[in-house]
Amino acid sequence: MNYIKLALIGLVLGSTASVADDCTAPPSPTLPDGATATMEQMLAGQKAVKAFQAANTDYRSCLDPLVTAAEVDAAGDSPGPDLKATLAQLNGDYNASVSAEEEVANEFNVALREYKKANPADVD
């Protein structure tokens, strides 16, 4: 019975690593320099941020079942160091995507403030 359980855990670990390779974090968009950008460039930047946020949501949706499976396996009788490392990596990837999204949003907000400062006539 234990051999079957160990074999299943090994299978999950192997498949988790290969499936995790299919989950690819989106690259951060290039944002406009608010101090010199045109309105069109700012709107394109806003669109890029929204696309990045949507792609990040998809990426985390891809990671969710892998994290859940690894958490269930790690809660078992004898999770090995490989399983713990896999879970830590998946959680790290997930958290990094949240941090990247926050960073991009903050950078765009800075650019937007710079744009408004440089173009007061365009601001309501």
Notable characteristics:
disordered N terminus; 124 residues
Description:
The model is unreliable at 1-9 and 15-19 (pLDDT under 50). The protein starts with a helix and ends in a 6-residue tail after the last helix. The protein contains three helices and no strands. The longest helix has 38 residues, at 81-118. It has helices at 2-22, 39-74, 81-118. By secondary structure, the protein is an all-alpha fold.
Q: Decide which structural class fits the backbone.
A: mainly alpha
- Give the helices and strands as they follow along the chain: HHH
In percent terms, what proportion of residues is strand? under 5%
The number of domains is 1
State Rg.
21 Å
Q: What spatial form do the alpha-carbon principal axes imply?
A: rod-shaped
Number of helical elements: 3
Summed over residues and divided by their number, the pLDDT gives a mean of 86
Low-pLDDT segments: 1-9, 15-19
- Number of DSSP E strands: 0
Question: First CA to last CA: what distance?
Answer: 70 Å
Q: Helical proportion?
A: over 70%
Biggest β-sheet description: none
Describe the protein's topology.
Layout: H1 2-22, H2 39-74, H3 81-118
Helix pairs in contact: 1-2, 1-3, 2-3
